[in-house]
Amino acid sequence: MIQRRSLNTLLALAGLGTLAGLAGCAAMNQLTADVSTYGDWPAGRKPASYAFERLPSQQARAEDQQKLEDAARPALQKAGFTPAATGAEPDVLVQVGARVSRADRSPWDDPLWWSGGFGYWHRGPWRGPYWGASARFDYSPRYDREVALLVRDRASGKPLYEARASSEGLQSSAEPFLRPLFDAAMVDFPATGVNPRRVTVPLPAS
C-alpha cells in the first residue's frame, strides 16, 4: 500500500513538472506589455487605406524608420487597414515611433531587497530564537522598450487613435520586440480602455 502511494505521488509530481514545463514554454513564446490607447474613432467608420507619415527627424533616419514601419504593418493589417495603392490618396496617415530607456538598478532602490529567516540557536542545554539575514543585490540594468502609433485622418489632419505599448527586460535591443509591441498596441482597436492595462500577445515565429 505504501509503495503504491509513493508511486502515485511520484506520478503526480511528474505531472506537475510537465505542466510547469509547458507553462514555462508558453511564457517564452509570449510578450506581456503595458498598453495605453486614446482617441475617439468615429462610430461606424471602417479601417481603410493608410500610408506612413514621417517627421523630418524620422526622414533623416530613413533606414531605422523603415524597420519601425515594417514592424507595424502586421498590426495595422490585423486591425483592418490596408496599404494605399501607389499614387492613391490614403484614408488615414500613420506615424510610428519607438524608444529604449535604460534603468540601472541599485540595492538602495528597494530597502526590502534582502531575505531573512527565523530559526533557533542551540548551544549546550540552551535553545533560543535567532534572526538570519542575507543580502541579495542585483545590479543588472533593465531596459524599457516602448512603441507609439498615431492614426490621423488624412483629409482633416485630426488625430483619431493613439496607442502605446511598453515592456521591460534585460535585453537592450528593441528590434526583436517591435512587432509584438505594435501588435499589443493595436489589439483592442478601435476601442480604448483602462490605461495602462496588461496585454499578452504571442511572439512571432523565428
Topology of this structure?
Blueprint: H1 2-28, E1 30-39, E2 49-52, H2 56-59, H3 62-78, E3 82-83, E4 92-103, E5 114-123, E6 126-135, E7 142-153, E8 159-169, H4 178-186, E9 197-202
Parallel strand pairs: 2-3, 2-4
Antiparallel strand pairs: 1-8, 1-9, 4-7, 5-6, 7-8
Helix pairs in contact: 3-4
Can you walk me through this structure?
By secondary structure, the protein is of the alpha+beta class. It contains 4 helices and 9 strands. About 30% of the residues lie in helices and about 35% in strands.
Query: How many beta-strand runs?
Result: 9
The fold-level CATH name of one domain is Double Stranded RNA Binding Domain
Q: Could you give a short account of the major beta sheet?
A: 7 strands, mixed
Average pLDDT, all residues: 79
